[in-house]
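Colleagues,

For the teaching module next term, I've prepared a clean inverse folding example: a structure given as tokens, and then the sequence designed for it. I'd like students to try predicting residues themselves before seeing the answer, so please don't circulate the second half yet.
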């Protein structure tokens, strides 16, 4: 825990600004934890545990909606990572079924569980707690 009030205030002000941005400005396209909507949601959820803030709460609701809209019932694990591959000097989008923690459905499900269960442990692996 950081005990410097100036640093904490600065960080919280910036998180609030980020929470007020439209999620399209985050430039995310994948549901995954590593670099996708689940990762952003995990960060906002972790902050909201300590700070009851309307902007952060609203961002949590919106990111949850976006994440749930990315559910694919006929996929192997429910969600697909979206990656880009350079094929013949052209970037192609590829949807990949994974069940791993950072790049697959396991991480996404853990974040969704944390919407309902305040104390979860996976955040420690992300150095969020």
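(Answer key — instructors only)
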């Amino acid at each position: 825990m950081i005990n410097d009030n100036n640093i904490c205030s600065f960080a919280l002000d910036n998180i609030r600004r980020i929470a007020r941005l439209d999620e399209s400005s985050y430039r995310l396209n994948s549901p995954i934890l590593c670099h996708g909507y689940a990762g952003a949601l995990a960060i906002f959820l972790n902050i909201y545990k300590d700070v009851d803030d309307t902007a952060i709460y609203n961002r949590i609701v919106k990111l949850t909606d976006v994440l749930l809209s990315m559910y694919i019932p006929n996929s192997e694990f429910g969600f697909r990572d979206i990656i880009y591959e350079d094929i013949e000097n052209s970037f192609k989008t590829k949807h990949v079924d994974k069940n791993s923690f950072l790049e697959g459905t396991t991480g996404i499900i853990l974040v969704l569980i944390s919407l309902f269960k305040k104390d979860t442990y996976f955040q420690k692996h992300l150095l969020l707690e």
